[in-house]
Amino acid sequence: VMGALESRGVLRRMSDMLEMLMKRMDILARLENSTDFHKGDEARFPLDRFQPAAGLMERIQAIAQNVSDIAIKVDQILRNSLLNGKVLEGRRDQCEVPRDPKYPDCAGKVEWMRARWTSDPCYAFFGVDGTECSFLIYLSEVEWFCPPLPWRNRTAPLPSPPPLPRGQAAFQSELSQLLELIGTGKESLSFMKKRIRHLAQQWLRGARRLEQKLKGQQRDQKHILIHIGFLTEESGDVFSPRVLKGGPLGEMVQWADILAALFLLGHSLRVTVSLKELQSHLGVPPGRGNCPLTSPLPFDLIYTDYHGLQQMKQHMGLSFKKYRCRVRVIDTFGTEPAYNHEEYATLRGYRTNWGYWNLQPTQFMTMFPHTPDNSFMGFVSEELNKTERQLIKSNKVSSMAVVYGKEASIWKVGGKEKFLAILNKYMEIHGTVYYETQRPPEVPAFVKNHGLLPQHEFQQLLRKAKLFIGFGFPYEGPAPLEAIANGCVFLQARFNPPHSSLNHEFFRGKPTSREVSSQHPYAEDFIGKPHVWTVDYNNSEEFEAAIKTIMRTQVDPYLPYEYTCEGMLERIHAYIQHQDFCTTSSPPLPPKAKSPAMQSSPSPLALSPNSTHLVWSRSAGRAPRAWPPVASLQAWVSEPQHSCTQTCRQHGLVCEPTFFSFLNKKEVFLQLGITCDSTEHEMNHLYPAVAENVHECYLQKEPLLFSCAGYNTKYRRLCPCRDYRKGQVALCRDCL
């Protein structure tokens, strides 16, 4: 990595240090032998306790010899390279920056290298030594800003051999190898392994059912890196210390389930929770991260989080841009297109600490299906068999309530006294708040607090309780689904006005404008009564009426299919098989051509029989190879105050951002009976849309800004919707 003199100096210093270490060890050994410290006392101080010292001396001597040998070899290599260098010296000093219009950035990059090549040791690692020729060699052979040098001894590239046939993915029948892959050393890893073991039989049953459903469908085995960035020391690893204290575990629940699903689907996995391991697996050259990787990326897919994404960008140099299409970002609350597009976010005030990555929005994967612009990853809840379901129903205590939340802070926010007094009048209230023995938590005296419970004991508590009640926080965690799966009714507060980044500290800075109408919008929108009640806690009459009704209502344990092991396996299988962000359907356009989002061609859509919306036309010829299949597409026009997410949901559908390109044509407005006195192409996450009062139509100029989210009272938006499988909102009816 360093120059000749530095290399020799470092090796000499290492050799001197090892020699000094051996001398000190020798002195210690002589001191030890001169005392009677362990004589006649072998019972308490066995002699073999002191044997490692001798072994350590031998190892140090061996290392010292190796360093000495290396120093000699480096000296020989440097002498040879200097002799060889003299042959090329004249030529190397005569290098000129080529003027090639195909490489317009070459001169500027060379200028930068002249001034900054010593700023990162990685340049020296690739052979840069301060000469013009070394700059040009690097910029043409390691990076790609300059043309190849004609005098370089480069053999003509052989035609690439055909790619070797990929191994086929086979469903796994046990999980012990995965537990080894996850590793040890952190409480968070222990938590995830414990969860995988606990759900092992459920996972294996789900895998067998999906295998039967796919009927021997061929699946390529993918090489997948899982880098859990928030568990690295460099990102602070705030979660591991909180595992034992009731801190938020939702992210670790989800990561454990992702690991189990990817492994059982038969893919080849590598798991990292340290930056050093990440660098090693990626092939990061030594230095500060400004150079590309030393070899092609050996992974087809990388699953990480925002912390991991930042680490990859810092250490992959230009390779990050090249390979980012292979990344999948686990993102609890979602990232909307307006926040993801760097230029647009900066210009329009959507820039946050977490957005602006310029990824395809569906590369972000959420915990719940709240952001159709992203992919829904999810997690699993425990399934019950028929016997367990009957037992739970017969053992329910109709006057028992359990409070959602393990941290004492949720009790400290004011305004709970009134509704807690009403609840206490009808039900016995139980809590699971973490506390240390000498400091009991500040909860009302009438609450029976069990402290932090192991998962199986918490499940037993839920199986007895009638009600699981939320206090408004935490948002969108897994616990309400677990409670509903164990036969509880979930009661939560309605937020009026809805919480968002505009009015609530928790969401401020998150890359979403989503308005959250309750503590758990998925439970409210996709499950609903009788399992989920969303009421105004400030309205005592409404709250008390809900408690009375819940106590006399019989409910069965319920778990949506998408949160079963089979449902999650099915969803991830479909994503791996069909989502490809690295290949484009058409070659790059010339610089002056229109953006691909703006190109106009005859619309393949036709008016539906009842003339309310557009569907894919049967006479449109051969349907394009798209996923989801275009047969599931329906195009609707929103009301001015509605986003496309809301519009599609009103029609029993979900917004599908992949289909925006089919709607982004002037002809589609005409087919829907919309008059366009003018049509403009602009960058705006609300387009395509129409300003009806002035008959102005707008088409999207930037495909990364196609967005299901967002509304403005000025516009009615064109919305691409699709059907979905019952219990599996992420997949259309024909998506498998």
From TrEMBL:
GO cellular component, one term: Golgi membrane
Biased composition (Low complexity): 594-605
Top-rank taxon: Eukaryota
Keywords, ordered alphabetically: Glycoprotein, Glycosyltransferase, Golgi apparatus, Membrane, Signal-anchor, Transferase, Transmembrane, Transmembrane helix
Chief localisation class: Golgi
Record pathway: Protein modification; protein glycosylation
Protein localization: Golgi apparatus membrane
Catalytic activity: N(4)-{beta-D-GlcNAc-(1->2)-[beta-D-GlcNAc-(1->4)]-alpha-D-Man-(1->3)-[beta-D-GlcNAc-(1->2)-alpha-D-Man-(1->6)]-beta-D-Man-(1->4)-beta-D-GlcNAc-(1->4)-beta-D-GlcNAc}-L-asparaginyl-[protein] + UDP-N-acetyl-alpha-D-glucosamine = N(4)-{beta-D-GlcNAc-(1->2)-[beta-D-GlcNAc-(1->4)]-alpha-D-Man-(1->3)-[beta-D-GlcNAc-(1->2)-[beta-D-GlcNAc-(1->6)]-alpha-D-Man-(1->6)]-beta-D-Man-(1->4)-beta-D-GlcNAc-(1->4)-beta-D-GlcNAc}-L-asparaginyl-[protein] + UDP + H(+)
Region (Disordered) residue spans: 586-605
Topological type in the membrane: Single-pass type II membrane protein
Domain Glycosyltransferase family 18 catalytic, first and last residues per copy: 122-721
GO biological process, one term: protein N-linked glycosylation
InterPro entries in the cross-refs: GT18_cat, MGAT5_Glycosyltransferase
Top EC category: transferase
GO molecular function: alpha-1,6-mannosylglycoprotein 6-beta-N-acetylglucosaminyltransferase activity
Its EC number(s): 2.4.1.155
PANTHER family (alphabetical): ALPHA-1,6-MANNOSYLGLYCOPROTEIN 6-BETA-N-ACETYLGLUCOSAMINYLTRANSFERASE B (PTHR15075:SF6), ALPHA-MANNOSIDE BETA-1,6-N-ACETYLGLUCOSAMINYLTRANSFERASE (PTHR15075)
Family per record: Belongs to the glycosyltransferase 18 family.
Protein name: alpha-1,6-mannosyl-glycoprotein 6-beta-N-acetylglucosaminyltransferase
